[in-house]
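In keeping with the milestone schedule agreed at the kick-off meeting, the structural modelling team has produced records for the first pair of proteins. Each record is given below as a sequence line and a structure-token line. The laboratory manager (R.T.) confirmed that both were archived under the project's standard naming scheme.
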Amino acid sequence: MNRHSRRGSLALNATVAAVLAAAGIAANLAWAQVDAAKSSVTAVARQIGVPMEGKFKKFDAQVSFDPAKLAASSAKVEIDVASFEIGDAETTKEVKGKDWFDAAKYPKAVFQSTSIKNGTPGKYDVAGKLTIKGKTVDVVVPATYRQEGASQVFEGALPIKRTAFNIGDGEWKDTSVVADDVQIKFRIVQAKK
């Protein structure tokens, strides 16, 4: 796999991770602090058919959630796109550049919920607007949650198209090397207030 292909996968993964992080936290509003050591947001994309996974190391959330009052619940998640890492320093650096995240011009990816509704048993459908690289797209993130001791755990995955956010400009618009489909996976753990 060439260096350019790996870089494309990283940017795509980062985009997906941003969306999932936002959705996971949106389903978790009655709890105070995100436990960063137990939480994760990753993005998985395919480069020449091979899955590649990267991780956002910094994100923040403002969440207000009550399962009995979903209409009053809301969430906003901001992800530092420059915190994305894929395991290769050169690829990680390129993903932060203009063709991918353009982190200097667009330092944050933001998810703002518009509604949270019951989905299938044990799941919530978190609708909202995801903004990455200045482009805003409506998304619905399926999230599950469970209580573990004094914490709530939210998990899920959201498929997105990287080209919907202009992630991978120039030579990277070609989706034959780095696939357009990205899977954002999240696990958010918050302690009770």
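The second protein of the pair:
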Amino acid sequence: MSARMPSGPSWGRHVALGAGMLWTAPNTLVGLVAGVAGVLRGARMRWSSRDRAWVFFRYPWGPGGAMTLGNVILATADTLDVPCTSYSQRAGLCEHPEMRLGDHERAHVYQYMVLGPLFLPLYFVCGGIHVRNRFERAADRYALTGRGWWPWPTP
């Protein structure tokens, strides 16, 4: 008997995900170092296949919510299945239903996997943590609709 290679789109998808994880490995390493520091202060770590990231829950630093570094999510809550508001809603620009925090952070994971080491410089050039940042708006869009995590319009 011989082992069969996965066929079709799932095989290509696994290759693309693996390449993206490798491309953003420097960002992930920074996230893992920060996460392990949090474990020393009581955080707990778990792989989330849904969010394609190592998640550090009860992360002891930060104002609340979560932050993504490569394939690492540093979350102050006990779960990513908590509702959160969009950046636009917090800025009073619109009314949206609440969205799942993990869905917003998963969009950033995808962005990191495509942009790799370019993500952080581009994120800050686009305004950092702000409602007008195209990365945050795309993450909100993805969390609300399940589509549109890429921060630039496609033709």
